[in-house]
Amino acid sequence: MRPAPPLLDGLAISASFLCLVHCLALPLVIAALPALASLLDVPESFHVWMLAIAVPLSGLAIGLGWRRHGRIVPVILALAGLALMSWGALGGFAPGVETALTTLGGLCLAGGHIRNWRLGAAHRHCADEA
Fold first, then answer.
1. Distances in whole angstroms, Cα of residue 102 to Cα of each of 25, 29, 52, 66, 78
2. Which of 34, 54, 102, 104, by CA, is between 20 and 30 Å from 89?
3. Structural domain span for residue 28
4. Count of domains in the chain?
5. 18-74 pLDDT, tens digit each
6. How much is the pLDDT for 47?
């Protein structure tokens, strides 16, 4: 079986990082610069769209990695991250709780992708030596 390209994990890590920046920086920018609040109005559907991107991309990247290296830790981290992100985005919580859940979820998801990437690289290295 051909190893999956690390590009998928790279894209997923980038998406998780962008989500993290959005969750942490945007509220601070809006709080610090009230004049920008009306210009940076993010629609409620933003989180649904982000989930619509994160779920299939992460599922594909983590799934291909699992088939390659057979380790369950990245799968568990990714599923926990997606669950927290979904719960935060769709749970109807107050903004602070929503931010905390989606941020924690994004960190878990990014951690799963980083672990997946490292395990895949180690697996490719071992395969090259054989």
1. 13, 18, 14, 24, 13
2. 34
3. 7-129
4. 1
5. 777 766 665 665 555 455 555 656 677 777 888 898 899 899 989 999 998 999 999
6. 79
Structure tokens at 22: 């959005």
Q: Is 9:116 a contact under the CB 8 Å cutoff?
A: yes
Neighbour tally for 48: CB within 10 Å: 12
Instruction: Look at residues 124, 126, 118, 122 and name the one whose alpha carbon lies nearest to residue 13.
Output: 118
Q: Are 73 and 124 in contact (CB under 8 A)?
A: no
Which range has highest mean pLDDT (14-23, 24-33, 101-110, 116-125)? 101-110
Q: Stretch 2-18: mean pLDDT, rounded?
A: 71
Is residue 2 a part of any domain in this protein?
no
Greatest CA span in the chain, whole angstroms?
Answer: 61
> Domain for residue 1, yes or no?
no
φ, ψ dihedrals at 6, nearest 5°: -70, -5
Give, in degrees to the nearest 5, the angle at Cα 119 between 117 and 122: 110
